[in-house]
Amino acid sequence: MNFRCSLLLVLLLASSAQARETFTGQVSYVTDGDTLWVQPDTGGAARKLRLLGIDAPEICQSGGKAARDLLAQLAWQRRVTVKVSYFDRYGRGLATVTLDGQDLAARMVRAGQAWSYGWRGRPGLYAAEETQARQSRSGVFAAAIPESPRSFRKRHGSCHPSKK
Is 21 one of the catalytic residues? Predict the structure, then answer.
């Protein structure tokens, strides 16, 4: 193995080790239905987090504001436990966030305000909650043919224009 490969391997292992962490803190801001900011109890800057395993409607998409409002109603200014598993390309921690022992992502999907994020034909972590929401026609699943955030982004791009 050459030097560059060794260095890359060390950097990848270091970034994975940094990604796996658990902390508690207070939700200080809710951006949308799957993104929030948590102020760690230990101090320092608030951390931008994306709920792992779900995809909520874009804020400019039908259902986007309702999803954000539900997440804010559930979590804003509440103390949560955060388990960061990875970081995405935007620098957000991809995390499981629990409130009073309940998984916020599962609650969002169960309420019909987010999809279980599937990958390569797999249904995702919250497939059972999504099935339940679809059967009860809750939230975004009340529409005859709900458009997933992934499809919406492909057709319209991001709701957040890039800064030049």
Answer: no
Total domains, the chain:
1
pTM for this model (two decimals): 0.84
Whether residue 35 is contained in a domain is answered as yes
What mean pLDDT value characterizes the chain?
Answer: 88
Q: Which of 44, 133, 39, 113 is nearest to 73 (CA)?
A: 113
- Residue 107 CA to residue 42 CA, distance in Å, equals 27
Whether 11 shows a pLDDT value over 60: the answer reads no
> Which one is catalytic: 47, 50, 68, 110?
50
* 47 is a catalytic site residue: no
Is 58 catalytic? The answer is yes
141 belongs to a structural domain: yes
Residue 13, domain member (yes or no)? no
* Catalytic hit among 47, 68, 92, 110: 92
Residue 14: predicted pLDDT: 45
